[in-house]
Amino acid sequence: MCPLSLKTSDSTQILATGKAKMWILLVGVNQYQDEHFPALDYSAIDCQQLGAALNEATREFPRKQVIVHHDFAAFPTFAAVYSSLKQITSAAQPQDTVLFYFSGHGVIEQTTQQAVLCLSDTQNDSLLTTGLKMQELLQLLEGCAARHQLLWLDACHSGSLVLRGARGMDEPTAIGSFEPTVQLVKVLRTRAAQSRGFYALLSCDEGQRSWEFPELGHGVFTYYLIQGLRGDAADAQGVIEADALYRYVYRQTVEYLNQKNYQLRLINEEKKLRKESPLHPEYPLQTPKRIVEGVGELVLGLLSESSDISGADISGAGISGAGISGTGISGTGISTATALVAADRPGNDKAELSETRFAQNFAHNEAHNEASPTRTPISAPVNPPSSPDSQIGVSKAVPQSESTLVALKQLSVFGYAGITLAILGAGFALGGLTGLFNPHLFTSLNPAGENAENAEACDRPLETLPGSKQPMEAQLLLPNCAAGAGWEQVKVQTFIGRLGAAWWVALTSDGNTLASVSGNAVEVRDLQTGETLRVLKGHKDIIHAIAISPDGKTLATGSADKTIKLWDLQTGELLQTLVGHAGVIWSLAFHPNGQILTSGGGDSTIRLWDVQTGQLSRTISGHKDRLFPVVFSPDGSILASGSKDTTIKLWNWQTGKMLRNLPGHTDTVRALVFDAKGERLASGSWDGTVKLWDVQSGEELNTFTGHINNVVSVAFSPDDKTLASGGIDNTVKLWDLENQTLLATLKGHLDWILSVTFSPDGKTLVSGGRDGTVAVWKLQP
């Protein structure tokens, strides 16, 4: 459990009034000269952005000095870091506060069993002379006059001091001894007992490993340190106190790992059903550890509306490129006034985990982007950016042909965020999957059709409208400057940035009520205030599908427990439980009359239910694999279904007779939508294409190519002139149905576009992404 805070003295006044000075030394090491030490992906960016967060949090402290050593600033060699340590420990006065942070490898030297922090030039065969020994670091701090001293270690596995290794790695590598760090904890506790102002914070406890995740862009420990310093750990007065920061980091780290393991268990359950192997190992527990005696109310920051830090002494202590100036961290290209985090809170748990391709994609991501193995190989050195503007984490680093979200983002509690919006009264549904949020910058290829090579492309930044819940740096890419058809005037608004652990959401037509699904529960909220109105619980397993009746009164939920439940959306009363499927319910859709509900399941069947009685009316079979989309035509006469068997089937749902089979896709059919007249059907597939079909003849009218890899959502505009598609290439593409060409590409999401839908007037397009963002793209008059 998270330990309680300690009663201590307050240091706010002396820091805020300038009677005391804050000294900060930050060290992050990505690349090591000795190839025995694997390169890391995130230590330098950890250091960069933690420095920016500290600089912002301490802007009310007129006297401070921040020294930064990482791969892209003053290089983190032993000599440079040791010199900075000596400088700070010698100059600090009794009333001052000293903070030392390290992100990188830490090992135990085998002969002496001493803990050593590995710097860029540390050699494995001479750890004691080329690495920073913990005992030596503590001795320097012991000799420092400053009464308040903080030591933050994200030393890969600082609790057990081992190298970052893959999950399931039971044997140590060739570096150091991986015995539990009893020695480390002992010396830290000894130091804490000697000084009531000493406060040590380790990224994990003894015998544990510290994890880093690409969807966070940081080690999980430092990620939450940054978020806490940016305000999440501040009290009502804006004070960020060391022990409150610890409690925040502790809770968030434990919660995040729990949810990562939860989603892995879901994948493993599906793999077991498919008799696939191997199963994915779970991440061992990581609990940040605090070592302190009698002090906890050390003030680290004081937030206010003012951002003027011109009076701060943060020149870098004479170390060229290592300090922070009044305009940012020198050597990083980061302005202190600029939002620097590519991802804030992790996204939500994954829906539709049993989809084979998405499970495969997730497994592929694990192989290349999972927690501990996500580091730059030794053979691919990390080179410093050529200019300040090209530094990692800065919006200016994004080429003009790319677009990213770089500002503070409040995403879901889980590592996944899948979104489905049902706009009532309009007949449009926005369906979504869930998946990992990946904050890495992306490059998207946008084929513009046959004339792309001869067209003049236009790449335009888009304005974010006031009232957005999370800032977005969005772009509109036109295949040629005359192809926009009004979309060149689009502005973007992000109206949902935090859905909790939402898999699917449904929005009422007045935009005031939001039903979000998390695990096996549904939370109904007032969208304007965010207030939770009620929580609907009843399913015994994960909910994979949701639909709202045309009149907005009934909510249907389908679950892995093989049941469907109908709820009164206004009162939260459970109306019916529908039992009949022999597999997971993957899709739900109401008939336009609201009296019939259809469901598609993992048992490869379509089932039709009487909403009033809850009775099963009909079971339709014909697909050879699991069902994904099921959708009624606007007049309600035809039911369309798509499957993992790569086919689309059209049914007379009243008789169960198949009207026609539409072959053509070469992979799972993931999305289906009828046009407003019910004459054409659009499909999106994991084969990367969008196809247009004539409903009466079954003829394939056109195939749109341009997405890179899977297409997961499609939507018609109300006038049937534009087709929108969302894919895992992080883009929304708009297709001109009259000319059969690419009209525009909307960019801004950091990760897969999982869902798209138009508003009834066609002037607004809503997209939901795996990055946890719901973006509203509004055409301006």
TrEMBL record:
GO terms for biological process: proteolysis. This is Caspase family protein. Residues 367-394 are annotated as: Disordered. It holds the Pfam family Beta-prop_WDR3_1st. Residues 23-234 form the Peptidase C14 caspase domain. GO terms for molecular function: cysteine-type endopeptidase activity. Transmembrane segments: none annotated.
